[in-house]
Amino acid sequence: MDKIAICGGKPLEGTVEVGGSKNDAVAIMAGALLIAGKTVLHNVPRISDVYTLLNIFQHLGATSRFREDGALEIDASRLTTSEAPQELVRQMRASFNILGALLVRFGQASVAMPGGCNIGARPVNFHVKGLEELGAKLTLEHGVYLGRLRRFRGANIYLEFPSAGATQHLMMAAACAQGRTVIENCAAEPEIVNIAAFLNACGAHIQGAGTATIEIEGVPELHPAEFSIIPDRLQAGTYSIAAAITGGDVFVKHARPEDCRPVFSKLREIGVEVQELPDGVRVRRLTKRLAPVDIKTMPHPGFPTDMQQVFASLLALAEGVSLITETVYENRFRYTTELARLGADITVEGRTAKITGVSRLMAAPVTCTDLRGGAALVVAGLAAEGVTEIDGLDHLDRGYENFVPKLRSLGASIKRSGDANGGLQVCSA
Ligand code: EPU
């Protein structure tokens, strides 16, 4: 089992490039299954969730390859089965979004309930209800959804909560429906806007993505297109926070300020300069100790639930008491017990974490509990005194491409045990 070792205390300096967005890539890839042709995607991150999805595609009969120029080609011209492999589907959340595409291609499908980070119950009832409203017949048998469909028919759908996954899934299904679909109370994340743009590039007629109401005029079929994944706003936030916690000075290249507004606004509020430059932001801490702040996670454009963990590491060193209230997931504080091992004073009651800032964090062995919780530990380790060892890296590999090399290029003393240069010796002293 690989481990990361970090000798904390080095200010990060230089330029880091933000890669393509995980959540955009996996959703658009699911969309590519709708198309009997070759889709070309640029800026797809080389992360394990992408490879898991490609393995699922291979099982379904689609072929794929990363070209020499880095673009990902997915050829879904000839699919051979509508049964998705359960053990792979259960490794990630976005795999469930292939259900609609398989129904369109085969008129039937079998897709297990998905997996993903253990941060709450994460049901799929909004997906199921929406697909049924569009005309699919779905039954759940032994943890697997079995579906049948003649053709999706346009419908008026109201989402009980602005679910990112359900909005993506239903938008894709409705793109190929007969007639007009209106989805209300939609998620409005930048990824939703880009997925709609991808589908439109393939011939769909979707309007309103990025607002609470999306209108879709169905078309008989979509055609292939070449398209780019947007820069990952969660990586951008993570590197910005890493710069701030180490008192460094980092240019976060390709960060799009308009996608990161809630995080950058809180960073500024606590004493971090986030300077918007062409093609990125420069991040610097302005004071020795940062101010505390209260955060409440909300659907976009509120503060993203995916950033509360990494932000908590920063607030662990603030001067005063901060409260983080998590409203999107019921169990996204598992990482706090690990953060406490590093000396953070953090207690959780219900959906709120109380963080009383301490003057220093101290290294300890810790374990990633989930993807963003793992990133929080890496960021905390960058600031902790001594050598922090982190295991459970499969979580991190799901969403951060070249995390360790990128941080090392900014001057961090960080190593991964599987690295070519081997060993975990990171401190010269
Ligand atoms: N929900 C339901 N029923 C559903 C769908 C969602 O009750 O059918 C609930 C969820 O349990 C959760 C809330 O609605 O409490 C929001 O879930 P949402 O559907 O928006 O999340 P998701 O699509 O499963 C995506 C990202 C997550 C991110 C959320 C929220 C992907 C692959 N995942 O998940 O990303 O936290 O949106 O923004 O796009 C991450 O990147 O670390 C990550 C977990």
Instruction: List low-pLDDT spans.
Output: none
**What's the Cα radius of gyration?**
22 Å
The portion of residues forming beta strands comes to: 15-25%
Task: Specify the structural class.
Answer: alpha+beta
Q: Give me the count of strands.
A: 23
Distance between the termini: 26 Å
The profile of the biggest β sheet is: 4 strands, mixed
Trace the largest sheet across and list its strands.
21-22-1-23
Summarize the structure.
The chain is α+β, with helices and mostly antiparallel strands and 429 residues long. Helix content is 31%, strand content 24%.
Describe it for me?
31% of the residues lie in helices and 24% in strands. The chain has 14 helices and 23 strands. The strands form six sheets. Strands 21-22-1-23 form a four-stranded mixed beta sheet. A four-stranded mixed beta sheet has the order 2-14-16-15. Strands 4-5-3-13 form a four-stranded mixed beta sheet, covered by helices on one side. Strand 7 (137-141) and strand 8 form a beta hairpin. Helix 5 (125-133) packs parallel to helix 6, helix 8 (233-245) runs parallel beside helix 10 and helix 10 packs parallel to helix 12. The longest helix is centred in the N-terminal third of the chain and has 13 residues, at 48-60. It is globular. The mean pLDDT is 95. The structure holds uridine-diphosphate-2(N-acetylglucosaminyl) butyric acid (EPU).
